[in-house]
Amino acid sequence: MTDFKKNLKQKIDNSLNSYKHNLSSIRAGRASASFLDQIKVDVYGSFMPINQIANVNVQDSSMLNVQVWDRNNVAAVEKAIRISDLGLNPSAEGDSIRVPIPKLSEERRLELVKICANYTEQSKISVRNIRRDILDGLKKEQKNSEISEDELKSYSNDVQKIVDESVKSIDALFLDKKEEILSV
């Protein structure tokens, strides 16, 4: 019998970490260096995360400074920031880019909550897919007479409990982020 619980928890933890990273990239009115992490820049023939081609620093609560390592990539970085769904208007100055963080309007706050809700749903789908894969593996083991039908039922209940806890955690993270965005 495989150690399905350890495998399940590891996969769900990876999914939750990805979800947390996605939420942290959504600003709640103040500048953060991780704010631009989701942006991919078209350089050197491929799309690279902005933090692999530049340093992102918080200048103050409403300004980010992006120091691009290769001066030839400044225009590509500026364009990637401008066309992202973050609603930013960067301006290049030599080999650095200043990114003012505008105050959030009520309309923009609601858009950000929708983006968070989308990330939340994607995360839940990921957890459900993990559950499906684990249950399929357990059913295969039962079919091959590696585990009994009673064990399958017991293990399936264990899997569902872990998934339910994860979904509650995802919902709690979403509500915290939603409150953070709407209360600024």
Explain the overall architecture.
With 184 residues, the protein is of the alpha+beta class. The protein has helices at residues 4-24, 74-83, 106-143, 149-183, and strands at residues 40-43, 46-49, 54-60, 63-68, 91-93, 96-100. The chain has two domains: 4-23 and 105-183, Orthogonal Bundle (Topoisomerase I, Chain A, domain 4); 30-100, Gyrase A, domain 2. It is 57% helix and 16% strand. The strands form two sheets. It has a four-stranded antiparallel beta sheet with strand order 3-4-6-5, covered by helices on one side. A two-stranded antiparallel ribbon has the order 1-2. Helix 1 runs parallel beside helix 4 and helix 3 (106-143) runs antiparallel to helix 4 (149-183). It is elongated and about 70 Å long.
Summarize the structure.
This protein is of the alpha+beta class and 184 residues long. It has helices spanning 4-24, 74-83, 106-143, 149-183; strands spanning 40-43, 46-49, 54-60, 63-68, 91-93, 96-100. A hairpin with a 2-residue loop joins strand 1 (40-43) and strand 2 (46-49).
Give the strand line-up of the largest sheet. 3-4-6-5
The overall strand count is: 6
Residues in helices, as a percent range: 55-70%
The figure for the number of domains is 2
Give Rg in angstroms. 21 Å
- Full CATH superfamily name of the largest domain: Ribosome-recycling factor
CATH topology of the largest domain: the name is Topoisomerase I, Chain A, domain 4
- Based on the coordinates given, report the CATH architecture of the largest domain: Orthogonal Bundle
Question: On the 0-100 scale, what is the average pLDDT?
Answer: 87
Distance between the termini: 51 Å
Largest sheet: 4 strands, antiparallel
Low-confidence stretches: none
How does the helix and strand content classify structurally?
alpha+beta
Number of helical segments with 4 or more residues: 4
Topology as a string of helices (H) and strands (E): HEEEEHEEHH
Please indicate the percent range of residues in DSSP E strands (runs of 2 or more): 15-25%
Tell me the name of the CATH class of the largest domain. Answer: Mainly Alpha
* Overall body shape: elongated
